[in-house]
Amino acid sequence: MNQGVHVGLGLVLIPVVLAKLWSVAPKLLSWPPSRSAAQLLERLTLLLLVGGVLFEIVTGVLNIQYDYVFGFSFYTAHYFGAWVFIGAFVVHLVVKVPKMIRVLRSRSLRQMLGTSRAETRPEPVDDDLVAREPSEPTLSRRGALTLVGGGSLLLGALTLGQSVGGFTRPSALLLPRGRDSGEGPNGFPINRTSEAAGITAESTGPTWRLVLLGGPQVIELDLAGLRGMAQHSAKLPIACVEGWSTTQVWSGVRLRDLAILAGVPMPKSAQVKSMEGSGAFNQATLQANQVSDPDSLLALRVNGAELSLDHGYPARVIVPALPGVHNTKWVEMIEFRSR
After folding, report:
1. Residue 206, Cα to own-chain centre: how many angstroms?
2. Inter-axis angle of helices 2-23 and 141-164, to 10 degrees?
3. Which long-range contacts (CB under 8 A, 24 or more apart) does 175-183 make?
């Protein structure tokens, strides 16, 4: 729900933000930029407000499409960009709430929505958001609200299915990669294919070994060895930061059982590494509570079938409430750390 709401709401707000910027353009683009110290302060907060929301939307959309055209860490920049926007938004509210309340009380919303385009008149020229020489109206206020609301509803309808899943998934036309699915029991979204990761059938064949580190000696297990250990099943989701999610039944070895086998029965953390040699998510760090959770698995099967190569064969990590990018596929090494 967290990932789906975050991405879905971000996309739904795009028409609202564009409409808001269009409505305040006369004030935003007025010249000279300031006539007093108070106005200069207000315009600086507007710069942070507008710049912050545009930065969050643009980088967010580029992230869910994997278009990292910027030369910095998306996650760090998106995080601090959010704080810049939130701070500027709070200041803007403090300054504008009295005027907002006064204007909303000055007229009837029902009357405004009932005004046709022919009856639409510009606001008084003493309002600092009104153009000095406005053109003839081409759209009523009711039409403008319908256009913005309809645009947001359309984006929501084209996005919601990727998080809800089931029969709604085909409607998610904005789904970046999750429309590509496997077959049979492995028939659910694939974010990064084995081909893209450079994983081959040969590298995951009989010579594959899982290496466990952290204890008094190195432990190596082949696939038969893992299958011979106690197996556990759990119904868990993969929730991708791009907004899509899917819930499947996974089976495999509990991570806490592997920690005991490695000689670290109560690890403080665990470092999981993939066979994928490069990339931002070829490894993940799990905390103590994640390793010890009874449903945290090194999954070998899904929905009763062996994992497909695209879904992480021969083994992948599945942990409750962990973002999909950290549920590492094609695992080759786990280091359990006691401190």
Report:
1. 37
2. 160
3. 175/243, 175/244, 176/64, 176/65, 176/66, 176/242, 176/244, 177/66, 177/242, 178/240, 178/242, 178/244, 178/246, 182/308, 182/310, 182/311, 183/308
Q: Helix/strand/coil (H, E, C) string of 235-263?
A: EEEEECCCCCEEEEEEEEEEHHHHHHHHC
Say how far apart CA 329 and CA 299 lie, in whole Å: 9
Question: How far apart (Å, rounded) are the C-alpha atoms in residues 188 and 29?
Answer: 48
What would you measure as the largest C-alpha separation in the chain, in angstroms?
83
- Find the DSSP H helices in the chain: 2-23, 25-28, 37-64, 74-105, 109-113, 141-164, 194-197, 223-227, 255-262, 288-292
Q: Could you read off the pLDDT tens digit of each residue along the chain, which spans 339 residues?
A: 778 888 889 999 999 999 998 888 777 777 776 777 777 777 788 889 999 999 999 999 888 877 778 888 888 999 999 999 999 999 888 888 988 898 888 888 888 888 888 888 877 766 566 777 777 888 888 899 999 999 999 999 888 887 787 777 778 777 765 556 778 899 888 888 899 899 999 999 999 999 999 999 999 999 999 999 999 999 998 888 777 788 999 999 999 999 999 999 999 999 999 999 876 678 999 999 999 999 999 999 999 999 999 999 999 999 998 988 899 999 999 999 998
DSSP label at residue 231: P
- Joined tokens for residue 84: 């810049």
